[in-house]
Amino acid sequence: MELKKTIILGGLFISSLAMAENTANIAASSSVLSELKEVSKEKKSDKLFYLVEDFSQLATAPGFSFGAPSGLVPGFGTAFIGLAGTSYSGNTDGALALGGGFGDPIKSVGGAASLSLGSIDPQDGGAGNRGSLNLSLGKTFVDYGFGAAIGVSNVDLWHDTHDDKLDPSYYGAVTKLFPNNVAPVIITAGVGSNGYADISKDDINTTKNERKHKWGEFLTGAVYVHPQMSLILDYSSGITTFGTSIVPMPNYPVAIGLAAQDLFKEDKAVDSIKFLGTLSVGFAF
Predict the structure, then answer these.
(1) What is the DSSP letter of 30?
(2) Most buried pick, 125, 133, 235, 282, via CB within 10 A?
(3) 124 phi and psi angles, rounded to 5 deg
(4) Distance (Å, rounded) from C-alpha 179 to C-alpha 4?
């Protein structure tokens, strides 16, 4: 399994956006973008499902986060759409996010803007009951395999009720790629306000108000056991998530994420581990 560092970094092999406490931003952060399609010279198979030998044969790559925002940002010529859903104790919730990149984070500065839509299930009476804006701005240092970004998530655009109103969360993140030919690793770390604050230390009845004035750290690590599969351990907002991101069809820019969220039941408002699923499609043009 050969990892081609210049293709992965130069083509912005993966980019993710800001996350917050709701599934709308998790969808955005799991949306994988890539320009590998444009630079790859590898022969592609006529099959729909098959295994590749290296990253250059993929139209996109597996993700490296289930919540933490990334220090790698996309640029102009990329767009994405992501769908995320959670299920626990008989409750389900889902969200949709779509957006695109701007600028050039390699030559100067780039970033992304996305729109997140709240509940997408009309059966619960809350379909489209909230919408928010997410923005990121960053720089990628290709020679060092490193990226740094700042951003804001959950900028409230509309909400049906006061409980649906979202408060903006600001963050700073750095991401480092450790390339190798066995199991490439990506580490992301940073701090953020509001939605990034630790929810496990607050009383559930006052958590939302108290977190407005607090900051918290986030950390995520991903190991690529195969070019089409990453294993991800994510710690964001005091919540631990473990799962995998898979690209099942190498010729298509589609990534699927499956994870167990709140592994240690850190969220006092929930009495069971959550199942998280994401579906992301990235475009390079």
Answers:
(1) T
(2) 282
(3) -95, 5
(4) 8
Q: Interior CA angle at 30 toward 236 and 210, to 5°?
A: 30
* Residue pair 129/159 in contact by the 8 Å Cβ criterion: yes
Between the alpha carbon of residue 69 and those of residues 9, 137, 152, the distances in Å are: 18, 12, 10
Is residue 12 within 8 Å of 6, Cβ to Cβ? no
Tokens of 266: 């850190």
**Which residue range is the domain that position 174 belongs to?**
5-284
Tokens found for residue 20:
């917050």
Compute φ and ψ for 5, nearest 5 degrees. -60, -40
Amino acid at 86: T
Lookup: tokens for 206: 């006052």
Domain count, the chain: 1
Q: How far apart, in whole angstroms, are the C-alpha atoms of residue 55 and residue 160?
A: 44
Q: Going residue by residue through the chain (285 aa), what tens digit of pLDDT does each one get?
A: 333 333 333 333 333 333 323 343 343 333 333 433 344 445 567 889 999 887 778 877 888 888 888 898 888 888 888 888 887 766 777 788 888 889 988 889 998 898 888 776 655 555 667 788 999 999 988 888 889 999 998 898 887 776 667 789 999 999 998 888 788 899 999 999 998 888 765 444 445 566 667 899 999 999 999 989 999 999 998 889 999 999 999 888 888 999 998 888 777 667 778 898 888 887 777
Sign of CA dihedral 38, 51, 101, 114: positive
Residue ranges of the alpha helices (H) in the chain?
Answer: 5-10, 23-29, 36-39, 207-211
Question: What pTM does this model have?
Answer: 0.84
CB 189 within 8 A of CB 216: no
Q: Which residues pair with 223 in a beta bridge?
A: 185, 231
